[in-house]
């Protein structure tokens, strides 16, 4: 945001920027900008020697740092500690940032979106793999102990085969370790976040931070956009992306767009998987709930997925519409939203003029900026959002790890009793559901929403119920399939092998659908 005048109010919508290494040599220019800043902050009794706004515009168009000490970053772990507490409660946290030579990720986001949502997604992005590895390691240790009979267990009669001596230790250890690592892991990646890397109360530091925004964007390896439908409405977000495209020849490659809609799907999938998996381990196999829990769980996940995907595709359609009619005059700016009044009622200068002037220097005229936004920017966004299947396979698999952990308990029970053929059958059954059928059902639901989201609302309702029904039928068909295989094939292991072979067919179709979307 452009430097505010006399009193020092916190910025309403600070924006992130990147710095370039060579900016240390531009001290003359930096001095001129500081003079211009002081002129802007003066009472106006003495006119500045040159037009300070023009000096600012010229400076920002250079995409440089005011001073190397303003190339700042915070570790992702620090920014996200306690579910991004510093960010959520808007406490002064400039002291968490530090001078750095390299910024890994520049976070671009709209302040209109809930910090909870952004923090949830960022925790999955930065801590998901660490949580996966730590929990997997822990669960494997528990598996070994369980196989050796060193964990408490109870007897349970399965619907096929001899009784089991089983305990829910993998099912419980996995989510516990995963949750701990997910919450407490501190990623060392250096990121730029406006709230932390720009001082919110010291006006001098705030102005320096804002003037070094371009330099910080130019220095970041990648830009991570926390995308929702308000993002494209914000002038500062557009400016950040324009700066990134301007300063990076390979910008598209290093642009990461994370739609914030997906984290509820991951959370729902994970905990439904946990409930169903634990139910299968703890409940007697002939308990009615153990048969329907999987189908009910799948139905719940389908509901969540379908709703999120619908929102996602509708917002993409809205994005295309907005980009087609894109006008700089429609882009919103916090200063204009607040009628150019600071938190204490003081006047605040408008950012709009400076930002548009800077972009005019890069692209020509306002019409050309709009044209660039609706072509280059839109192409980048379309390639990242529309050109890809929204839910990657690895994400679907990672979200349902509790299903795998429950299978590990069953495997341990078979291994403990030295029922090796049954143990091998558990592995095949796990691969059929965990790797093939459950991701396939999620893929089919996503595709169905994609094909039908633009139809009339009455037809949408029909399609939605059809997709729910189809998901339930697929799940029930899978469960019946296991039993049919065992009915016709006497050997337990062979029955599971045939079922695994059958499950490859929907998995293949789902893979084709995902790769066709890419
Ligand atoms: Zn304004």
Task: Report on the architecture of this protein.
Helices cover 63% and strands 7% of the residues. It has 518 residues and is α/β, with parallel strands linked by helices. The strands form 2 sheets. A 6-stranded mixed β-sheet has the order 2-1-6-3-7-8. It has a two-stranded antiparallel sheet with strand order 4-5. α10 packs parallel to α14 (351-363) and α18 packs antiparallel against α19 (457-488). The longest helix is centred in the middle third of the chain and has 37 residues, at 288-324. The model is unreliable at 1-29 and 41-48 (pLDDT under 50). It binds zinc ion. Zinc ion (ZN) is lined by residues 333, 335-336, 340, 350-352. InterPro entries: Toll_tir_struct_dom_sf (IPR035897). Residues 1-13 have a biased composition (Pro residues). Residues 1-29 are annotated as: Disordered. The chain crosses the membrane at residues 121-154, 166-185, 255-276, 288-305, 391-408, 423-449, 469-489, 495-513.
């Amino acid at each position: 945001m452009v430097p505010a005048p006399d009193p020092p109010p916190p910025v309403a919508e600070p924006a992130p920027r990147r710095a370039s290494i060579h900016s240390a040599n531009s001290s003359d220019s930096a001095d001129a900008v500081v003079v211009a800043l002081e002129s802007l902050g003066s009472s106006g009794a003495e006119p500045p020697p040159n037009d300070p706004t023009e000096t600012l515009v010229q400076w920002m168009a250079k995409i440089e740092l005011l001073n190397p000490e303003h190339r700042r970053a915070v570790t992702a772990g620090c920014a996200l500690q306690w579910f991004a507490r510093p960010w959520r409660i808007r406490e002064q946290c400039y002291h968490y940032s530090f001078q750095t030579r390299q910024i890994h990720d520049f976070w671009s986001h709209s302040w209109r979106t809930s910090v909870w949502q952004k923090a949830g997604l960022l925790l999955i992005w930065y801590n998901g793999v660490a949580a996966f590895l730590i929990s997997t390691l822990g669960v494997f240790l528990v598996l070994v102990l369980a196989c050796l009979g060193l964990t408490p267990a109870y007897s349970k009669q399965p619907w096929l085969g001899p009784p089991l001596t089983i305990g829910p230790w993998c099912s419980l250890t996995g989510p516990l370790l995963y949750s701990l690592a997910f919450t407490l892991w501190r990623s060392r990646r250096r990121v730029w976040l406006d709230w932390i890397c720009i001082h919110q109360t010291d006006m001098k530091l705030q102005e320096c931070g804002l003037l070094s925004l371009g330099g910080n964007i130019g220095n970041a390896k990648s830009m991570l956009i926390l995308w929702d439908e308000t993002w494209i409405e914000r002038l500062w977000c557009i400016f950040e992306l324009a700066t990134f495209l301007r300063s990076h020849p390979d910008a598209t490659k290093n642009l990461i767009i994370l739609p914030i809609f997906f984290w509820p799907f991951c959370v729902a999938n994970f905990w439904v998987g946990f409930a169903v998996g634990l139910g299968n381990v703890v409940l007697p196999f002939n308990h009615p709930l153990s048969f329907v829990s999987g189908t009910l769980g799948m139905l719940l996940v389908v509901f969540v997925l379908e709703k999120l995907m619908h929102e996602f595709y509708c917002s993409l359609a809205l994005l295309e519409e907005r980009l087609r009619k894109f006008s700089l005059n429609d882009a919103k700016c916090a200063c204009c939203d607040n009628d150019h009044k600071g938190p204490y009622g003081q006047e605040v200068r408008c950012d709009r003029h400076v930002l548009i002037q800077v972009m005019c220097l890069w692209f020509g005229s306002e019409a050309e900026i709009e044209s660039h936004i609706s072509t280059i920017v839109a192409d980048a966004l379309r390639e990242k959002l529309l050109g890809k299947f929204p839910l990657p396979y690895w994400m679907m698999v990672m979200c349902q790890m509790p299903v795998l952990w429950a299978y590990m308990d069953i495997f341990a029970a078979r291994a403990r009793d030295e029922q090796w053929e049954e143990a091998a059958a558990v592995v095949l059954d796990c691969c059929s559901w965990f790797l093939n059928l459950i991701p396939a059902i999620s893929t089919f639901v996503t595709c169905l929403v994609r094909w039908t989201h633009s139809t009339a609302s009455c037809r949408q309702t029909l399609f939605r119920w059809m997709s729910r029904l189809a998901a339930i039928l697929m799940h029930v068909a899978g469960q019946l399939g296991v039993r049919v295989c065992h009915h016709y094939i006497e050997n337990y292991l062979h029955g599971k092998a045939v079922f695994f072979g059958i499950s490859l067919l929907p998995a293949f179709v789902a893979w084709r659908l995902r790769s066709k979307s890419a």
